[in-house]
Amino acid sequence: MRPDVLPNESDVIIIKEKLMKLIIALAQFKPTLEVSENLNKMVKLISQTKENDIVVMPEGCLSGYSHNLEFLNEDMALEIEQALLKLLFYTKQHNVHLIFGSCIREEGSWYNAGIYISPNGIKHIYKKVNLAIHERGILKEGSNLSCFDFHNGEANIKIAIQLCREIRFPEQWKFLSLNGANIIFYLTNIIDTEELDIWNAHLISRAAENQRYVISSNIAHVEQGCSSMVISPKGKVIKTLEVDCETLERIQIDLSENSNWYLSQSRKDLLDVIAFGPLNNTSKNS
């Protein structure tokens, strides 16, 4: 599908003024390879939130994550399924929105996934489309770049998720912005201080070039390779979490800062963004 025109202003930017301001509960912690331990940490962080917060946690934080993915097995798949049911309960109990990462298994294949759970039980799953080299052959790549609806009062706000190395593929971010994403949530699990400045610069560029909020959550680690932070559509860093601190902080964002100014000036007669395969802009699994 080709995004021939920019999304309608009413779909992307013109949201009732009182609904434009959202609270991001940005969290980071140190996941292990034990699902139960990770779930307990996630529940503890959720307990620190307030109603209607959008809680954001790192890539692979429920399942755990490692460059050696041999820890993924039949028993863990069942543990993850049970943990997801518990998270559905806790998001409803606290009336919050939860965005986080986990390896999941579907129809016999493992995926690296970004997951959204709403207070009313709606679940969206984004499966990483651009796998790291060490993930290939073990994990299956996703096939959809998808936006999905976040319901905030009377407003339906489109959001999207990207994972780890996908920060290096700006065409994916532009495509999501052209198709309606107001916020792009970036979940990662990178440890490499030599990459910190580079990856943070990528994040700032993705926010500024698309004039969209970017919310980044990485694992807590003294050698964190990408910051957990909130970046405005102007490319300004609003908040950065301390690298080695297991914490949750609440930050207000204002979607009225979003703009189509630069996207609308793209020379589509010379270069355009085209998606091959399905584009899913609903709240169904993808």
The H-and-E topology, N to C, reads as HEHEHEEEEEHEHEEEE
**In which order are the strands of the major sheet placed?**
5-4-3-2-1-12
CATH homologous superfamily (4th level) name: Carbon-nitrogen hydrolase
List segments where confidence is low: pLDDT < 50 over at least 5 consecutive residues.
Answer: 282-286
Shape: globular
| Largest pleated sheet | 6 strands, mixed
Overall pLDDT confidence? 90
- DSSP helical segment count: 5
> Radius of gyration over alpha carbons?
18 Å
Strand content: 25-35%
CATH topology: Nitrilase/N-carbamoyl-D-aminoacid amidohydrolase
Structural account:
The protein is an alpha/beta fold and 286 residues long. It has a single domain (9-265), classed as Nitrilase/N-carbamoyl-D-aminoacid amidohydrolase. The protein has helices at residues 9-12, 35-46, 74-94, 170-178, 196-210, and strands at residues 21-28, 54-56, 97-106, 109-117, 123-127, 147-152, 155-163, 183-187, 213-217, 229-231, 237-240, 247-254. The protein has a six-stranded mixed sheet. A six-stranded mixed sheet has the order 6-7-8-9-10-11, with helices on one face. A hairpin with a 5-residue loop joins β4 (109-117) and β5. α2 (35-46) packs parallel to α3 (74-94). The chain is globular. The protein starts with 8 loop residues before the first helix and ends in a 32-residue tail after the last strand.
